[in-house]
Amino acid sequence: MSDNNYKPGRVIEDRKTRFDKLNRFVTARGGWVVSVPGAELVTIETLPGSLPAELRAAGYNLRRDGEGQRILGSAIVQELTLTSSGAYEPLAPGSTKPVAQDLRHAGIVSVERYTFAME
What we know:
The protein is of the alpha+beta class. It has a domain of 79 residues: Endonuclease I-creI, CATH 3.10.28.
């Protein structure tokens, strides 16, 4: 029996497989797919950067769909230096002292939202 015969749900399963590959691609580059798996219209959120260009180069027709915000676990980075007594203190802007420790805190970041059809 040929595998080319119509099977109910095959289109959805193919779309889910492509969606999974897309989700791994986007996630590996610091983005988020916020659509339901298998949806025909896909929405992603990304920090400003090269991800939209990479997706366009891969053949996706992205449309800018606004902006949003996300809370990230390491959005705020605080650099500390050591004082002569061995205590940590925040590094002053423009300081040439060596950074002794980076502290990372949760914070809100702006993201760009894009939508495209999963054909």
